[in-house]
Amino acid sequence: MAISINCLIVDDEPLALDLIESYVAKTPFLKLAGKCSSAFQAMEVMAAQEVDLLFLDIQMPGLTGVEFSKSLNGSVRVIFTTAFSEFALEGFKVDALDYLVKPFNYAEFVRAANKALTWFSLSKSPHSVPDNLPSQSMMVKAGSKLERVDLKDVLYIESMGDYVKIFCKEKEHPVITQMTMKSMEEKLPDKKFFRVHRSFIVNVEQVQVIERNRIVFGKVYIPISESVRENFNKLLGDRFLM
What we know:
Elements: E1 5-10, H1 14-26, E2 30-36, H2 39-48, E3 53-57, H3 65-69, E4 77-82, H4 88-93, E5 98-101, H5 106-124, E6 137-142, E7 145-150, E8 154-160, E9 163-168, E10 175-178, H6 181-187, E11 193-197, E12 200-203, E13 209-210, E14 214-217, E15 220-223, H7 226-236
Parallel strand pairs: 1-2, 1-3, 3-4, 4-5
Antiparallel strand pairs: 6-7, 8-9, 8-12, 9-10, 11-12, 13-14, 14-15
């Protein structure tokens, strides 16, 4: 089934509104729900009709795009548009799909729109995993792109403060995304993933060797905190003789 994304353009610059509207018209899977010159107008439109995606300017008087985005429910996705590249990281902190730095051309626009298409295709597909079952994959922001991570391939996850590194089988380098360890832990199925240390979450199904209260992944040794050791052993069940 073809995906149609209802999008709303929010920008206080008339030229930007017209340009993005012309780009939306060229993009088959985008359907224009309207265009607004402020976040307050956008609220009125969104109260009257369903909106899936916002092309949202960051710098606007009264209520900025970042401030407005924090009020949205999780079903509405955001692609920020801004004349200032330094706002890109701020945009990702509020879970934006992407950002476009003005002036941007149609090729740049459609690359960002395709990220939205990927996101909605995964979430709306009739073949996706039902809500009452654990998800088999997740989409994470890695730099300026969205990357799909198959949970079965994850070996372990390591904390880097406000970022995490996701180590997967068959991948030479980890996927690095801006997310706290607590947020990552909440996204993972608790029967398959276990936080064995404040800095490490492991995929229980990938654990093959435990040595001296450390999990061994090749040349990497992950400590098991004493405070969680008993619960971790229970989760492992009879797979190991401890």
